[in-house]
Amino acid sequence: MAGMGKENQLAYRSYNSLNNEGRLRERNRRKKTMEDRQEYGSNQARIKDLCPNDKARIKQLVEDLARLGTEKEQIECDWKQERSDLEGKLSLLRKRQALLLREKSDILLILNNAHTDTQFI
Prior knowledge:
This protein is 88% helix and 0% strand. It is an all-alpha fold.
């Protein structure tokens, strides 16, 4: 710093000061986060600390959750099967529609030809 001008020395000190403040803030933030984690862990309620009614209620909720999960899987399976069936039916209907449109076109062509033939008679 001895070879620096006064203005450069002030800028250097200001930079170092800001840099040190940033490091200090980061260190304090990390320390606070660790303290929060430790405090949360030590004050956290545990199932063994609950009264029998609460334990029974939690047991019932877990059973309900398991039952609903199974029901959801069954419903999804049924839905997929029904969707597959409906898509198959839709495909058949589309093919039938295309066939009927071709038949209609053929009939109209025959009718048009017959109409044209009768005009020349």
